[in-house]
Amino acid sequence: MGIDAVDVRRPEQLDAVDALIIPGGESTTIGKLAAQYGLIPKVRERAAAGMPVWGTCAGAIFIAKDVPQHPHPIAELMDIQVERNAFGRQVDSFEQDLDIPAIGDEPFHAVFIRAPRIARAGPDVEVLARLDDGTIVAARQGRLLATSFHPELTPDRRLHEHFLSLART
Predict the structure, then answer these.
(1) How many C-beta atoms surround the C-beta of residue 83 within 10 A?
(2) Is residue 4 part of a domain?
(3) What's 85's domain CATH number?
(4) What is the bridge-based pairing of β-strands 64-66 and 78-83?
(5) How confident is the model at residue 54, as a pLDDT?
(6) Which of 4, 122, 140, 144 could disulfide-link to 78, CB 3.0 to 4.6 Å?
(7) 48-97: per-residue pLDDT in tens?
(8) Domain limits for position 146
(9) Which residues participate in catalysis according to the annotation?
């Protein structure tokens, strides 16, 4: 997509990036390692200064301000409440086409793997996508983006382009 992507593992590396994607994986591990390496204060500082941050799946859990019954460290950036493993276990993973008007008229094919759901969005949070039952699965607050699904698992680059546009403004 015409950008240089780098792994960020230490706080000082955040000074060299214009935007940050916190990927899926295991939210407990992400939080524990981020705390151990001192990343959380630096992520908060950079996000407060306007750096775009996108949390996908476990990354959405990590950037949420409220994650009930999650005793591990999180960055607490975005005014959303996220429920872990909201759709069930690994075998309950699914795919669904979503309407996301912010990225265009064509549906976005979303892959949900042991996915969280956004249970509540604060007043400054824009809901970008919902499932048919109304469950929030994508949201934006300023330069913060959260998705319950894994957009990197499809060839559709529109969400990535949307995130990059946040870094360019």
Answers:
(1) 21
(2) no
(3) 3.40.50.880
(4) parallel
(5) 97
(6) 144
(7) 999 999 999 999 999 999 999 888 899 999 999 999 888 777 877 889 99
(8) 11-168
(9) 57, 150, 152
Burial class, 131, CB count within 10 angstroms (exposed 0-12 / middle 13-18 / buried 19+)? middle
Q: How do residues 95-124 score in pLDDT, each as one tens digit?
A: 999 999 999 999 999 999 989 999 999 999
Q: Which two tokens stand for residue 44?
A: 């908060």
Residue 46 lies in a domain: yes
Threshold 0.85, pTM exceeds: yes
β partners of residue 90: none
* 84, part of any domain: yes
Please tell me the distance from the alpha carbon of residue 84 to that of residue 115, in angstroms, as a whole number. 7
Considering its fold, how many domains does the chain have in total? 1
The tokens of 123 are what?
Answer: 């007043």
Q: Assess whether pLDDT exceeds 80 at residue 169.
A: no
